[in-house]
Amino acid sequence: MNVAAVLSCALLLAIWGLPWSDWLGHFPAHMIRHMGLVAVVAPLIVLGFPRLADPLALSPLAGAVLEFLVVWGFHLPVLHEAAMASSVVFIIEQALFLIVGLVVWAGCLRTGGLAGAGGLLLTSMHMTLLGALLTLSPRVIYALDHAGALQEQQLGGMLMLAIGTPIYLIAGLWLVARSLEDTKDEMA
């Protein structure tokens, strides 16, 4: 087993096994799990278990659109609150986050080049927008009925920005650099 495979398994255990809500509150814990799955664990699984990821390698644009629909869908108050209230909906949410993360990373890394970079940069843009909306909202969006709920939501948004934005952006720029290097080698 390679390093990426071991790290992905260890991080999955940490994401789902540690009491994040006790430490950070509900919404920041949600974002640690969400961003951990789509931006950290998913690329590690793609790199660590390539045969598992190959069937999920859709086009980068299709992957970005699927992830957009799942991520924004589960951040609508009705679905987010359903996941808070029901273990079954929570498991579905977490599974879908991981699956669409795998689809994005498998498609982008397998395709590579500018198309792969475009998929990651598009994903970065919609994740950044959602993180900014959560951080800058002047009111609580979700049914968090306790003191400090707005600060908890804003911390969750900041975690989304701090984890997702740089990972997708750096990976996208890395694919651009590789593409440019390949073009340069072809011209030589």
Automatic annotation (TrEMBL):
Predominant place of localization: membrane
Keywords attached to this entry: Cell membrane, Membrane, Transmembrane, Transmembrane helix
Membrane spanning stretches: 27-49, 56-76, 82-106, 113-135, 155-177
InterPro entries per the UniProt record, alphabetical: Caa3_assmbl_CtaG-rel
Gene Ontology cellular-component annotations: plasma membrane
Membrane topology: Multi-pass membrane protein
Keyword Cell membrane: yes
Subcellular compartments: Cell membrane
Protein name: Cytochrome c oxidase assembly factor CtaG
Organism classification: Bacteria, Pseudomonadati, Pseudomonadota, Alphaproteobacteria, Rhodobacterales
